[in-house]
Amino acid sequence: MLVKLCKGYELEKEKPNTSEDFFNRSEVVYVENGEEKTLHVLYVRYFDDQINEFTPYTDKIVFQNGTGEVTFKDIVALVCLIKNPGLRDRKRIYINKQAEFASYFEGIDFSKLPEIFQKLNSNQGYELQSLSEFIVQPQ
Fold this sequence. Notes:
- 26% of the residues are buried.
- The protein has a 5-stranded mixed sheet with strand order 6-3-2-1-7. It has a two-stranded antiparallel sheet with strand order 4-5.
- The protein is α+β, with helices and mostly antiparallel strands.
- The two termini are 27 Å apart.
- Helices cover 27% and strands 32% of the residues.
- The protein has 5 helices and 7 strands; from the N terminus they run βββααββαβααβ.
- Strand 2 (23-32) and strand 3 form a beta hairpin.
């Protein structure tokens, strides 16, 4: 699987009576078997404020990447795809339960994520050989 893009953003209200401003969207674009796919993860924005409960990070900017910053929103869809390969058959998921959201981050080897974004920053894409290499293996 070749990861081409990971990005996240805050939704904004389109109409005064909608609740988009309570949600974030994270996307990962990848190529698998010659087909480009996108996984969209819509989740409650409140989870960004609880980042230290799911990750070793304490700030919404999780690391610097060359000339830019990688935010928590940028990694969510990628982490979901790594943790649950079955999501490759989905286009979008919605997560509104904190326990479900936290489960995607359990066991992720966060030290390997900057390598992915470094390749993406140089427009090379990142070839994910094995999703299990991003999961912390029990000793």
